[in-house]
Amino acid sequence: xxxxxxxxxxxxxxxxxxxxxxxxxxxxxxxxxxxxxxxxxxxxxxxxxxxxxxxxxxxxxxxxxxxxxxxxxxxxxxxxxxxxxxxxxxxxxxxxxxxxxxxxxxxxxxxxxxxxxxxxxxxxxxxxxxxxxxxxxxxxxxxxxxxxxxxxxxxxxxxxxxxxxxxxxxxxxxxxxxxxxxxxxxxxxxxxxxxxxxxxxxxxxxxxxxxxxxxxxxxxxxxxxxxxxxxxxxxxxxxxxxxxxxxxxxxxxxxxxxxxxxxxxxxxxxxxxxxxxxxxxxxxxxxxxxxxxxxxxxxxxxxxxxxxxxxxxxxxxxxxxxxxxxxxxxxxxxxxxxxxxxxxxxxxxxx
Length: 351
Description:
This protein is an alpha/beta fold.
């Protein structure tokens, strides 16, 4: 279970239309708590209109920068994102949990390698952290970025990216893609099959890419993954994180669980046994019983509610994160998992 710490806001900077970055003051006694790997995120907690909200936001600085900084884009009907963009000020205090997440880049300067990143919209946030880390800590490696937005005005971190490109012009290249603006040296449209083929098979056909990092809406990620695998790229070299999933899939009524389950749940070394309906997700049942289970998005696109299924069986409404190997090893997203057996044993600590 994540522990939240109260951190004051150092500064807020406008990064694009309806998008800001927030840097936090981290006291010396919490420096180690908030150390992170490139690509990770933090969970924020706030009480708005009498309701507790938790949201995950990716870190956008390099691990060696000494900065704890996130970016938040205001989305339609987004209670927390609107509050952050239009209400928060420097000096305000938010509750922040320590960094986590499996979408990470770990530098190794003893080996020269090349990475390619595909990002759309606010998906640039963890990608920017990865790019900075690679450029800083792997001095011979090269980085390719394909970045899609509506226009330059909607492009988060535009100036910072251009500065990085200028500073590392022999190692860092950017291909902008704009869906509502036709500009020189950019591609007009969206990141689609032709975009991926053009960049990888024409622009950079002489570069052997060792790892691919994708972040953005689910549709974009599926397109890029499919094109890369069609071109012979091993799935193990493709890493991705969703920032927006498709509409959750409802479990078909004819196969939907309808019975009850005895669930034994362990969180922070405390084990509780509860009776739950199989129509509930494991997370819903745990929260109903005041079990302090970790969670954030509750939509299956973050890994905050990750746990290990030790006994029994479940069906997941959707899974956009876990690999086949992780599922085979018993990992489940408890916000998506419905039990299908009379008993289950779930351990949030063993992940």
